[in-house]
Amino acid sequence: MARRVIGVAVDGSNQSQNAFNWFIDNLYREGDSVVLIHIAEFNLSVGVSPDVDAICKLVKEQEEKVSTLTGQLTEILKKKGIPGKVVRETGKPGEAIIGVAQKENVSSLVMGTRGLGTFKRTVLGSVSDFVLHNADVPVTVVPS
Fold first, then answer.
1. What does residue 114 show for φ and ψ, rounded to 5 degrees?
2. Which of 23, 60, 77, 93 could pair with 39 as two cysteines, CB 3.0-4.6 Å apart?
3. What is the four-CA torsion angle of 120, 127, 84, 62, rounded to 10 degrees?
4. How far, in Å, are 51, 106, 111, 114 from residue 5 at the CA level?
5. Can you list the positions of beta strands (E) in 28-83?
């Protein structure tokens, strides 16, 4: 049987932690490898003069949080003997997750959901909904 590469979207939320745990407990098979996908999204308002120092501080804080998160998840993978790597990108989360999945040739994706109601999902959009309907591989959305 061909070796599977599973992509797991992680962002530090409880929902993504649940999806990561679900992958380990329910989907992982010996011989699989995992690509932990983290997407940073930075939004700057148009027409607002940015405070460069504040932005640099924000980026540094975010970088530290992501490094801590991915370090913790990588350590769990090592302890369980699951081969894997972390891919970090910047962009619109849904599009970037799909892009990483394509570049890494993942055979399926696992991600959490924020549990938005129908109205909020319609107004705010949903990353998991976007990925579910636009990815070219099977997507497992783990409910919160």
1. -75, -10
2. 93
3. -70
4. 41, 5, 14, 25
5. 33-40
| Alpha-carbon torsion (34, 102, 129, 61), positive or negative | positive
pLDDT (0 to 100) of residue 86: 93
Tell me: the pLDDT tens digits for 32-68? Answer: 999 999 998 766 555 555 677 877 887 788 788 888 8
Contact criterion met (CB below 8 Å) for 122 and 23: no
pTM assigned to the model: 0.84
Residue with tokens 């003997």: 81
Domains, the chain, ranges and CATH? 5-38+51-142 (3.40.50.620)
Helix (H, G, I), strand (E, B) or coil at 8: strand
Q: Does the CA dihedral 130-132-133-137 come out positive or negative? A: positive
